[in-house]
Each structure stands twice: as C-alpha cells, then as structure tokens.
Design goal:
The structure is a single chain. This protein is mostly helical. Among the domains are: about 1-80; about 85-185, Serine Threonine Protein Phosphatase 5, Tetratricopeptide repeat. About 70% of the residues lie in helices and about 5% in strands. A hairpin with a 2-residue loop joins strand 1 and strand 2 (about 280-285). About 35% of the residues are buried.
C-alpha cells in the first residue's frame, strides 16, 4: 500500500505540481512504518517546500509517522511546533512513547493532555493502559478506565485486553478478573493475558483453572499461553501436571482441526436441544435459544440461582472447570 501511495504521489506531483494538504496527509499516513521512514523524510521536505506545514492535519500525520518509525525526538519537535494541537496530535505522541517503551513520558504527556482539556480517544487510552502496565501506574490506569466507562468503549475486545493486562501487572488480579468476566466471548489474547497475570501474581492454581476453562471453550493456546501454564506448573513443583497439560493440549488441537475440516466440507453437527414437561405442556430448548415466550423469566430465574450459589460460596464455571482439568491431569 505504501509503495502504491508513493507512486500515485509522484505522478500527482508531475501532473499537478503543488498539492493540497489532503494529499500530503494521505501519503504520510501510508508511510507510517520504519521500512518507509526515508521516503517519509523526503515527503516531509516536499511538505515544507509546498508551504503546507501549517495545516494541523499535515502536522498530525508527520507526528504520527515519526512516532511510529521510532523517531520520537523529531515527533516531539513537530508536536511542540504545532500551535493548534488537537486530540489527534496528543494521541499520536502518547501512543508513540508507549509503543517505544517510554512509559513515564507517555503518562506524563497524558496528564498534560488531560489538564489541557482534550478528551482522549480509545486508541490513546489503550496506549495509556499499556504504559501503566509497564510502570505499575495504577492511578493513571484507573483514570483511563474511567474515561473508557464514560465513553462506552469497555466492551471492545482490544480495550478489555489492555484493561485486564494493566490490572494484572499492577497486582490487582480481582479487578483483572472482573474485566475478563465482563466479556462473553474472550479471545485467545485475552485468555492468555488473564492466565499470565495470575501466574505473575503467584495465583498458579487459578491460572491452571482458567486454562482448563479455555480448553473447554476449544481455544487453542499459543506459545505465550503455554509458557505461562508451564510456569504455573513449575511454581507448583508439578512436572507430571505440566506433561499432562501438554498432552491434553495436543488432543484439543486434533479436535479443533477435525471440526474445522467438518466446517470446510459442510458437515454439520446436530444442534443440541433439551425439553421439559410442565403442566402437561412440553417446553423445548435449543442451544442459543432466545425465542422462547418466557425467555426473560427463565433468564431472571437463572440469574437469581447463580447469585444464590455465589452468595453460598460457589463460583459458577470455576469449580467445574477446575474439576475437569484435575480429572485430566490426575491431581
């Protein structure tokens, strides 16, 4: 994409001569990677020559490009040059510092952005959360979390992952678990984050229990997941447990592979269903059913039952998964 953008940009210069700020903003955005930093510098020179450096959109594109290329000193210089900064200008540099591992500067700049009256986007807040994870900046992390709640961004998977990671790395595994449980369908990255967070904080049994639940959902682990799980086994001084988990993971991989093959070939599994007779009337329920005329009352009853179980000390989904895992690993 970057090479095509450069080609079109070159042709436009030959045909039209002076180009407007929208063209420069587009081409600079396409060049925002280390591989094309030299081309970006050349376009920067053309920006100055054409007198469009004063447009905030062009400055934002330059700040972003240099930040993503790791040239943070140049990015900061351009940021300070900009007399009409907007939220994008601030976000570009904050995200750049965060991605470069300079978390203290990212958080310091975030505070300045807040006091300057700018509202951060969800992308800025993810950068802030990642920075908080690196320096255990729980107060700044909670502030960012508050922004996310007000903005309604918390349900997005990449934001939930950043929140879980931040709370876990700051030692607040309870808050990390709340963030994890908030999402109905966590992906591999989120599972890995919550498992790793528990291992990091010495909650090895909890990490293995979560891994058991992850396997029940037929989600294959990656290298990072397995590293955390095996570390948990090591911390518990259970070599046999680690071997059994590894073997079970291989079996799960075979199951997932077969199901993917069935899907490709159009082989369908019969939908699971159950029924109950009540007052001479048979009620049929299908997996994922939401059309039963009394579904609202049924879900409310289930919610009350789960709350009662929780109040009595039982954790739904936790014990069953733990028992399933232990039955497999023989512990």
């Amino acid at each position: 994409m970057a090479r095509e953008a450069l080609g079109v940009f070159g042709l436009m210069r030959l045909v039209e001569g002076n180009l407007n700020e929208f063209v420069f903003t587009s081409v600079l955005s396409a060049l925002a990677s280390l591989e094309f930093v030299d081309s970006g510098k050349q376009v920067h020179c053309v920006v100055v020559k054409n007198g469009v450096l004063g447009f905030v959109s062009v400055l934002n594109a330059l700040v972003t490009m240099y930040a993503k290329c790791g040239s943070l000193n140049v990015s900061l210089m351009l940021f300070e040059m900009c007399s009409e900064k907007n939220a994008i200008t601030w976000s570009a540099l904050i995200t750049g510092y965060s991605q470069a591992g300079d978390s203290h500067k990212a958080l310091k700049l975030f505070c300045k952005m807040h006091y300057a009256g700018f509202v951060p986007s969800e992308f800025t807040l993810v950068g802030v959360l990642n920075a908080c994870s690196d320096v255990a900046g729980i107060e700044e992390g909670k502030q960012a979390h508050g922004y996310l709640l007000k903005s309604g961004y918390e349900t997005q998977i990449y934001i939930a992952t950043a929140l879980v990671d931040m709370y876990a790395k700051c030692g607040f595994t309870g808050d990390a678990r709340k963030g994890f449980d908030f999402l109905l369908e966590p992906d591999l990255v989120l599972w890995t984050s919550i498992i790793a967070g528990n291992v990091q904080n010495g909650k090895n049994e909890e990490a293995l229990s979560l891994y058991g639940r992850m396997q029940m959902h037929e989600i294959l682990p990656n290298e990072l997941t397995m590293a955390s799980v095996l570390k948990a086994c090591s911390n518990l001084a259970s070599l046999e447990q680690g071997k059994q988990i590894h073997a079970r993971t291989i079996k799960l991989a075979d199951v997932v592979r077969v199901r993917r093959m069935m899907k490709v070939k159009g082989v369908r599994k019969e939908t699971g269903c159950s029924w109950i007779e009540l007052k001479n009337h048979v009620h049929v329920f299908v997996v994922g059913d939401q059309i039963h005329p009394q579904i609202g009352e049924i879900q409310e009853a289930i919610w009350r039952l789960r709350k009662h179980m929780k109040d009595e000390g039982y954790r739904p989904g936790h014990d069953s998964a733990s028992m399933s895992l232990r039955s497999e690993i023989g512990s």
